[in-house]
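@channel sequence for tomorrow's demo:
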Amino acid sequence: MAGGVTVAVVGATGAAGQTTLRILEERKFPVRELRCFASERSVGKTVTFAGEAVPVLRFEAAAFRGVDIAICSAGSAQSREYAPLIVKAGAIVIDKSNAWRMDRQVPLIVPEINPHAVRGHRGILASPNCTTIVTVMPLKPLHDAGRLRRVVATSYQAVSGAGVNGIAALREETLAWARGESVTPRHFAHPIAFNLIPAIDGFADDGYTGEEHKLVNETRKILELPDLAIAPTTVRVPVFTCHSVAVNAETEEKISATRARDLFAGFPGLRVWDEPTEQRYPMPIAVEGQDDCFVGRVREDLSHPRALNFWVVGDQLRKGAATNAVQIAELVLRS
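structure tokens (generated this afternoon):
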């Protein structure tokens, strides 16, 4: 790992952290030295990077001296505690939790959409919620072409969005069902195998969930549209990887379905799969493992003259988390 910068990955043993290590390697990020951190129970274990075994270290501020960029995949509580200490040690923090996203002094970045925001950082940069990233990617070209007025977004979110425990829950419950055993939920509030759970991240007083509020607030911040009308619904589904979102987008100027497909196809990070007569449209099983978000089922709204319906799918462990964070790190290096 000669040349380059010193990188720390916090939460390196989790699903997002493991994917981050793969993305750093795949994108040939100039890592001179890698330091990995995780919870106390993982200290002393190793993770693999570029064919080498890298030890998992105990978190302490002194361990970040000399680090240039720290990519954090820990929880919000840990991030609120750790990120300022890491910055004080001299590193730039790219955080993937919910801790800093709505802080006015912290840029919330999707590099294809608002790369200019990186210039305003004060040591911490935030990567959006995975569902927000998948949803906002196709909204940006529509807004640039016709100015968004209202968005209705219903997400169908994979269990890996809940981490390794979510993946284990779906696998264990499915195997139990196949053996004819009773299914007992151990991670989600209800069984997830062969089921849909229309509640993610707890309910607020207004009846909306935390995940739904994230989708609204983060989309507005990224697009710099503080008054954009957004109606969200988030659903956990029995899919291992990839979040899917059904979107209805109303614009001030009419955009035809044909033009929308062209706009999507010309936007970086988006791919159009929209050949319904050939049964070709985005599905999690086809999109998993890819960094682009895939758009299909593009059609004009039958109930509104200036609205479109479409379906977008993205791998939330990659573009929805790890890839977006590494792309932000690349922006930091270029800036």
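heads up for whoever presents: The radius of gyration is 20 Å.
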